[in-house]
Design goal:
heterodimer, A: mainly beta, 2 helices, B: alpha/beta, Rossmann fold
């Protein structure tokens, strides 16, 4: 992380989080080893990946799968595994073989 | 103020009755059992409004205490020895979540071999868990420490759990003269608890105990250290305030006949009472001896203790627990470490005593003073640990 993090005097005792619903501010995308690659031409928007994704990282537009939130996706691969199509709409690819986000 | 005959367990139960905590979660274990039995009677008789949570283990007891504390309750509990050991994980959680829980630890040897009698191996083992440790010499001090512990724990600059210890059986089961504050006085002294957060405050939702990684964990630990550092002045302030109320002064230590002393013993817990008697006898014989009772073990008053020991020629540190493989017991290690770097180079000897409830008599303590007298004349300390009253 390049931003300057707060010093210990600026924190809350016990690490209490005073602001509800701030998990989206904590970017976990850097943990990823494999990246889900979505092929929108194959995807039928059955939304099974959206149901299974543990990090709410399947993005929707008007009820259709529109992309992956790569700031938060940890690359677990559940979406690719659960995609019911024989010819998968999501496949996992090593980060080192991907173009940078 | 009224004078009553109480055991140590009864005295703490009386203090808990006066505090009337919101939640108590506990599991019985000898020698703490009578304390919780007495308090459970107060609950059943409607004398206190406390929600008493009877759990299936000490791990659950401390877990329930942490949850209740997070909800903004004033929380107390009590345990001993193996019960404390079963709480281990949650002791650290309570401290790191900054839960101002007050727990009585009725000191008992931590098995094995299995033993129900007193030594300090239980609470001393938990000395790095982040709790404040107050030791008691007798039932009176167990009562006094319990009331003060509530204020110390809940002080906004501290917000840490406090362990009040008393020696199993020697104090917990011995009937003594105890001065009890009037209920109104005690209630006024502890006051109301105003927690900063409450998990039940749905208008201001917060998250407690979140995942904390390499990027923040260390800073939160540093903040926790500061709470313990702040306890140094808070323990003193509360001690003075309680002193004005009760007529009994409280500080990190009590110096007994230390004014012109050349030889001294540093001790904590019930052995102090025995050592007090020995000091009186030796003073009558013309020996310049004193006694330093340590009441606050965490935070350890490292600067102040050295000032009190500075005028001596030699001294002994008494440990009622062993630290296997270490040079001396926990109290000795702390005291000796405090001396280094503060210009105090004296012959110091460590006595491990009273393990598993072994009696420590006048004669035993006399032998300690005899040895430090020899150390004072030779200027040398033994480089091994002494084990008092153990058979060869």
């Amino acid at each position: 992380m390049s931003e300057k993090l707060p010093g210990w005097k600026e924190l809350t005792a016990g690490g209490v989080i005073e602001k509800a619903g701030n998990a989206s501010e904590y970017e976990t995308g850097s943990w990823r080893v494999r990246r889900p690659i979505l092929d929108r031409n194959k995807c039928t928007s059955c939304l099974i990946c959206w149901v299974f994704c543990p990090d709410s990282s399947i993005l929707l537009e008007e009820g259709k799968v529109s992309g992956i939130d790569l700031d938060h996706c940890k690359g677990c691969g559940i979406c690719a595994r659960e995609c019911p199509l024989k010819d998968k709409a999501i496949v996992m690819q090593l980060e080192s073989e991907c173009e940078s986000t | 103020m009224k004078i009553v005959g109480l055991t140590g367990n009864d005295a703490v139960a009386e203090a808990m009755r006066q505090v009337d905590p919101d939640v108590v979660a506990a599991y019985p274990i000898t020698p703490q059992t009578e304390l919780m039995e007495r308090f459970a009677e107060f609950v059943s008789d409607g004398i206190v409004k406390t929600e008493l949570v009877l759990v299936e283990s000490e791990h659950s007891a401390m877990s329930a205490c942490v949850g209740a504390s997070g909800a903004g309750s004033r929380v107390m509990t009590a345990t001993s020895a193996n019960g404390l050991a079963l709480m281990w994980e949650m002791l650290y959680i309570a401290a790191s979540c900054r839960c101002p829980i007050v727990m009585t630890v009725v000191n008992r040897a931590l098995s094995g071999p299995i033993n129900i009698h007193c030594d300090h191996s239980d609470s001393m083992g938990a000395r790095d868990a982040g709790w404040i440790h107050l030791f008691s010499e007798n039932s009176q001090e167990a009562y006094d420490n319990t009331l003060q512990a509530v204020r110390i724990a809940e002080h906004p600059d501290v917000s840490l759990p406090v362990m009040v210890t008393l020696d199993g059986f020697i104090i917990s089961h011995t009937l003594e003269r105890v001065e009890i504050l009037e209920d109104e006085q005690a209630k006024k002294f502890v006051g109301d608890f105003s927690p900063k957060y409450s998990l039940l405050d749905v208008q201001n939702p917060v998250t407690m105990g979140p995942l904390d990684f390499h990027d923040f964990y260390f800073e939160h630990k540093r903040l926790q250290v500061q709470g313990m550092e702040n306890a140094r002045h808070v323990v003193r302030e509360i001690g003075k305030e309680y002193g004005a109320l009760s007529g009994r002064d409280f500080d990190y230590f009590e110096s007994y006949r230390m004014e012109d002393a050349e030889l001294a013993v540093v001790a904590l817990g019930s052995a102090v009472g025995t050592a007090r008697g020995v000091v009186d006898e030796l003073r009558d014989e013309g020996k310049r001896v004193g006694l330093l009772k340590l009441r606050v073990f965490r935070p350890f008053p490292r600067r102040e203790i050295v000032e009190l020991l500075r005028g001596l020629k030699a001294f002994a540190v008494m440990d009622r627990s062993n630290s296997f493989g270490s040079y001396g017991g926990p109290v000795f290690s702390e005291v000796r470490s405090a001396c280094y770097g503060q210009g105090l180079e004296l012959p110091i000897v460590n006595y491990v005593y009273g393990l598993g409830g072994r009696d420590t008599t006048f004669e035993d303590i006399r032998r300690v003073y005899q040895e430090i007298e020899q150390m004072a004349s030779s200027g040398k300390a033994p480089d091994d640990i002494r084990f008092l009253n153990v058979r060869e």
